[in-house]
Structures are given as structure tokens and as C-alpha cells.
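Handout for the seminar on molecular recognition.
Each group receives one record of this type.
Step one: identify the two inputs.
Step two: read the structure output and locate the region that could contact 2'-monophosphoadenosine-5'-diphosphate.
Step three: write two sentences on what you found, then compare them with the reference statements printed after the record.
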Amino acid sequence: MKKYFVIGNPINHSLSPKLHNYWLKQNNINAVYEKIKLEEDEIENFILKIKKQEINGCNVTVPFKKIVIPYLDSLSLEAKQTKSVNTICFNDGQLIGHNTDIFGFQKAINSLNYKIQNKKILILGAGGVVPSLIVALNKMEPSEIIISNRTSKKAEDLKIQFNQINIVSWGEVPDFDMIINATSLGLNNETIDLNTSKIGKDKFFYDVIYNPKETNFLKLGKKMGNQTENGKLMFIYQAFEAFRLWHGVEPSVSEKILKLLDHD
Ligand code: ATR
């Protein structure tokens, strides 16, 4: 039986096993998918097991998406552009690092029929997921991407990597069409202190967080009469693309799948 994992720390919260095991069963694939918490000094050995094919592949989550890179033989273009790997495949004796978060975000936005083209996008945060958001957004041709992060150095580092982005101070709210919460604020019911006085209607509030289903950030957007969406579809579609890369099959994304991940 083939074996796949998601590695991270913490990992308890991960819903990837639920989703992948459902799809494996649905597609009659003789494999199992588990979560495993690793320490940084265990990463090299774990990846070696994929090289030896004791393990067939893995997903990588926080905080290891960059740390795994030196142990791989090559990277997909997207993984290179973001310096972020969330899926490891083994092909022709080679360990290949992929980034399916980009696909996940783009596909989620497309399936909502939201048009990024010529829109002003404000991203709150500059952590691990943000390079993937920027690469995905750039494919959809926004007029501007603005980053606001508590620690300005991290936003400035991002600008070295993606020189077309603009930066504003944390707490500043410039004019935007779509605002994305890419911080961890909201995971534990925190609020983001946003100056809402200049935020008009017809905005799109998007949160990368999907558990809880509706963060205070999304509650605020909704209360102001704006469109809101959480990160559930992005999560599902990054898993969809990893599944396709490993098994060569496109799994179903149905109401049942959406319900499978509901848990609050
Ligand atoms: P990492 O920064 O290690 O990649 P992450 O979970 O990917 O971790 O990112 C966390 C994001 O949430 C960061 O943008 C972080 O801001 P800092 O760069 O200033 O740390 C943001 N964040 C976390 N707690 C926050 C808080 N209390 N107020 C504002 N931003 C916060």
C-alpha cells in the first residue's frame, strides 16, 4: 500500500488526511494519507525515505515549506518563484518540490467568478503564504498589489522578491477592491484593528483562514455589506492539485467535499 503524509508543526489541526483519504477511497487507490508532526532536525531523514520510496510523497505545511528545499533535487517553476514547497513528488528517481497553493488560490477565485483583472488588492500579512498569493494574483493581472505587515522588514523583503508590489504601514488602509487576510489573526478569534472609515461598499473580503469558518475579519466585511469568502476552496484546490500530481487523477470537488471539511 502506498503511503503519503502531511508534515508540519503543529499538525493536529490539519484536515488534509480527511480530504485525501476520502478521495483515495473514492478513486479506488490503494494508499493511505496521514499527518505527522516533525521537528526541524527530522526533516532530512523523512525526505530520504521518499527518495528510498518507503514513503511515496508528502505535503508540507507551516513551518517547513522553505526548510525542505535544500533536500530536493529540483523545483517546479512555481516553487522556484515563491521559494515555497507544499507538495513533494518522486519522479524518475528525482525528488521534485511543487507549490500547489498558487493553483489553489487561483482556482478558488475563478470558481467564485471574481475578476481580479484591473483590481487593487490589499494583502494583510507577509508570512509564508503571501508569495503564493502574489504569484497567483499576478497571473490574473491586478492593477496593484499592496502589502501591509506589522513587521515592516518582512514586507520590504517581499518587495526585493516581487518588486512590483507596494507597501503601506501596518494600520494604514489605502483604497482597495479586494482585501486579503493572510495573517494568522483570526485563527484564535482575534480581531484585526482596521480603520474602516474609508472602506466603501462593493469590496471583497477574503480570508486565507477557513477554520473558524467566519473570522472577525469576515464578519466585519459582511457587516459592512461586502462580499466575503474564507480559504476553504483554496485549501481544497491545493489538495486537488497535489492529488493529481501524485495519482494522475483529478478528484471530485462537490458539495459533499465542502461538507466533509465543515467542523464548526
Ligand atoms: P511566518 O511569518 O513565520 O511565515 P506565518 O504564520 O506565515 O508565519 O505568518 C504570520 C503572519 O501573521 C505575519 O504576517 C505576521 O506578522 P509579522 O510578520 O509582523 O510577525 C502576522 N501576525 C501574526 N500575529 C500578528 C499580530 N498580533 N498582529 C499583526 N500581525 C500578526
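Reference statements: The CA atoms of residues 56 and 213 lie 32 Å apart. The pocket of 2'-monophosphoadenosine-5'-diphosphate is lined by residues 62, 125-129, 149-151, 154, 183-185 (CB under 6 Å).
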